[in-house]
Design goal:
39% of the residues lie in helices and 14% in strands. The protein is α/β, with parallel strands linked by helices. It has one domain: Amidase signature (AS) enzymes. Strands 1-3-2-4-6-5-10-11-9-7-8 form an eleven-stranded mixed β-sheet, sandwiched between helices. A hairpin with a 5-residue loop joins strand 10 and strand 11. Helix 4 runs parallel beside helix 5 and helix 9 packs across helix 11. It is globular and about 70 Å long. It starts with a helix and ends with a helix. The structure holds glutamine (GLN).
Amino acid sequence: AKAGDIVRNTLARIEAEDARIHAFLSVNPDYTLAQAQRIDDLAASGASLPPLAGVPIGIKDVLTLEGFPATAGSKILEGYRPPYTATAVRRLADAGAVFVGKINCDEFAMGSSNENSAYGPVRNPHDLDRVPGGSSGGSAAAVAAGMATATLGTDTGGSIRQPASFCGVVGVLPTYGRVSRYGLIAFASSLDRVGPFAATVRDAAAVLGVIAGHDPLDATSSPLPVPDYAAALDATTGVAGLRLGVPSEYFAEGLDPEVRAAIDSGIEQLRAAGAEIKPISLPHTRYAVPTYYVIATAEASANLARFDGVRYGLRAPESNTLSAMYRKTRDLGFGAEVKRRILLGTYVLSAGYYDAYYRKAQQVRRLLTDDFLAAFREVDAIITPVAPTPAFRLGEKTDDPVSMYLADIYTVTASLAGICGISVPCGKSKTGLPIGMQILGKHFDESTLFRVAQIVE
Ligand code: GLN
């Protein structure tokens, strides 16, 4: 098929579906069709095609593409046009991908439901009254609704895995350092990761293979070589003999019985395929949510200090002094959740409280990481739920930020430990809502995640 035809179909699908789903913040059909035309010209010239030639891909609006909007879901970046392109985005373009649009998300990726976007929420394609998850809800919904073959999202505390679970698609959290953060508008730099969404494990593996790898523009990016994930999957030997750990702490109080049943049936599938299922313990799990919300807000308060009305996007009019201009710009430009986190973050970093909160959280982060390192001496990967429930209703948790934070219980642990993870569909609720299984792997062992996930999908 011609890239032009594929991409025209995808653009028509966006036109037809996105009025109700609202996954896209900006589309630019002229640019998209010109990209596709270049692929078709290349094909006509007889040249060999790059690995993602003509594949329609959407980009979460926290990642930059030179000359295009990058709002991060915030009013404070309205009108901003980045003068550079994120490395992950650049690598997709070099691999022949065609960009169909920039995608809606929670403001600065802060949220679990997409309801914190300054541009309005995304709706779950499986039930329009429910959230798609967050913060990369638009990226998950776009794939689920056929408006992109793959998308990029970001995951700081669950923002790829949880929306993938809510929307019934595959989402990958690469190991910290695997994918460059260059060109990602930062939320919490020690936790932020860029990763793919796709309808199948193989597609997700193919996209990760393209975006992964060392980048001198990100000092935390790893020099380790990147395996050919997709080729390895094609040659896969299944999961016979693989040891899979099931941590008791993730199956305790608060887990919806339908989610539990779906994960249990996924585990039975893996057992039937020859995996050895072992009960394990990750004893510090109960400290993960408070630890995450101290570290993430502390880093966010530092990262967001750059949005001052001078350097980017919005500037509030009619201020007499510089400090009044800063104040008014931030008051108008930031939403309630972002303000809440800046306040929390500056509080936990303040001189009198640093030891009690920030330093303590760093110490607990080490303990949580050691839990995983100990477990990975016994098992090759770990199986858990992604979220305590399937997708909840729009508005259900907006009045209670703490209840929203607590629902991140199963995802923030891997974020703090820097390990990799994947969310793969493993069942449905009685009402037809998708349920994902989370598989967690050792640092830089994404290959094992793909092997295990392919049995379950
Ligand atoms: N839900 C978490 C939060 O609100 C995670 C967000 C993310 O991963 N970007 O911080």
